[in-house]
Every structure is written in structure tokens, then in C-alpha cells.
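User: My notes are a mess, but here's the protein and S-adenosylmethionine's SMILES. Can you give me a structure?
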Amino acid sequence: MSVYDALAPGFDRLRAFPDDVPGAIRRTVLGAIRGTGRPLLLDLGAGSGRIGAAFVAAGDRYIGADLSLGMLRVFAARCGSPHENDALLAQADGERLPFRDAAFDAVLLMQVLSAANHPRRLVAEAGRVLNASGVLIAGRTIAPEDGIDARMKRRLAEILEAMGVDARRNASADTSAHWLHLHGCEVRTVTAATWTAERTPVAFLERHAAGARFAVLPPPIKDLAMLRLRDWAAASFGSLNAVSAEPFRFDLTICRLQPGMSH
Ligand SMILES: C[S@@+](CC[C@H](N)C(=O)[O-])C[C@H]1O[C@@H](n2cnc3c(N)ncnc32)[C@H](O)[C@@H]1O
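Assistant: No problem, the inputs look usable. Here's the predicted complex:
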């Protein structure tokens, strides 16, 4: 069982991208892969296919792997019959992948390192299954620092800390480049997509209550923290329904293995 099994039905609605974003991410990913022909891609932590579905629809040689069967079921439902494309979905733990060494041209970790219990193990295992010219590509959505989401996230961390809950994440958990540098890769970051999205405090409250890390806290703690955050947000933003149009982007950290590094 994975905490994402329970979150799967609502994941796409709460974390939807604009329609053209997954395609833009796919194009940037393919542009980062060396060589000709049709690369074999592993999307590790593929989830509900929010991004991966663009690869499947385009007929790429694509394997989506995820710990959560619930997320993979949502992915499968959106993609139709597996016989109509070159894609495969597999339930697997990214810390112990059921694939041979050097099997893939690219491994994608899209919004996964910050969700993983042991990001470093995922990166190491991804390095094992990449071939010598392969690329490891970690992607994440970047929200504005002064936007509603970022401000509410910071406030929630303060509230939980005041309640004695150690909800701090590893300070570098969100920084894909950190894990890739640790692994000794040659790293560069590119922006695959930018867009403007409307944010409201009430939408943050709904999204965060269903977030993987928050969802596992004891119910009385969650309820009290949400109540306090709700009060703070109503006072700070004037209304829980206050709308703010904010700039977002999706960054890819592209890591090329150094010769002899993991093989
Ligand atoms: C935030 S979701 C992102 C899903 C998808 N990549 C996207 O961007 O829409 C994180 C995903 O990583 C998966 N995950 C976390 N740890 C994992 C592990 N050790 N092995 C496989 N999948 C894992 C979760 O099950 C979840 O589906």
C-alpha cells in the first residue's frame, strides 16, 4: 500500500497542468536525449500519467513505473488499450527496480524526489538502469516565492512547528539538482514550460489537506493545523476566495552520467 493509493482519484483534479504543458515537457525531454532512433524511457514515479500520458499518446517507447497501484490505475484508464501503443505500466519500487543494468536511454523523475522517502536511493537506482549515454531528468513545478501557495506553505510549517510537529522536510528535498550533484552528474537546468494559474487560499487548503505528507499526520493535528491556517489566510488575504493570477514554470534538471560513474 502507498499513501498515493488514497490520493489517486483526486490527484489530477487538484494538480492539473494546462493542456499544453505535458507536451512541452515531452519535447524538452526528448531534446535532451543523445543519439537517434527511438529512445527507451523510464518514467519513475509516473503516477496518474499527468505527464507520462503525453509520451504514451505520441507512441514513445515508454515504461511508467510507480509504487502506487492506485495511481497506475488512473494512468491506465486515461490511456486506453496498452496494445495500441508502445507503452508499459509497471508497479515497482524505485529503490529496487525490476530492470537490468543499462537498459534505458533516459530516466524521468517528475515531481518525485520531493515525494520520495529516500531520494538518494532513487537517484542511485536510476543511475544503475541508465546506459552509458543516458540522461537522468528530474522535473518539478516552481511556484512564485511570494505567491499564495508558497506563503501558505511557509505559514503551515510554522503552525505545525508551534504544535510540536516536526513536519520539516529535508531542506534540499525539493532541489533535484542537489541529489543529482551528490550523485556526481554533470547537471544543467532548463525551463520546459511557463504558464499563469489562478490561485486561491481555499484551493490551497483543499490541495494540501490531500497532500501525501500532510495526509499521514494524525487527524486531530491535521484538523487543528488547518483551522489555524484557514484563520490566518482569511485575515492575510482578505478572503479565502481571493484570486491571484500567478506565474508558474516547470523546470527540468538534466543530468548526464560521467563516464564510468555507475557502470
Ligand atoms: C507527486 S507524484 C508525481 C507523479 C507524476 N510523476 C506527476 O508528475 O504527475 C509522486 C509519485 O511518486 C511515486 N513514488 C514515490 N516514491 C516512490 C518509489 N520509491 N518508487 C516508485 N514510485 C514512487 C508516488 O507513488 C507518486 O505516484
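The domain at 3-143+169-196+248-256 is CATH 3.40.50.150 (Rossmann fold).
User: Great, I'll file this with my notes.
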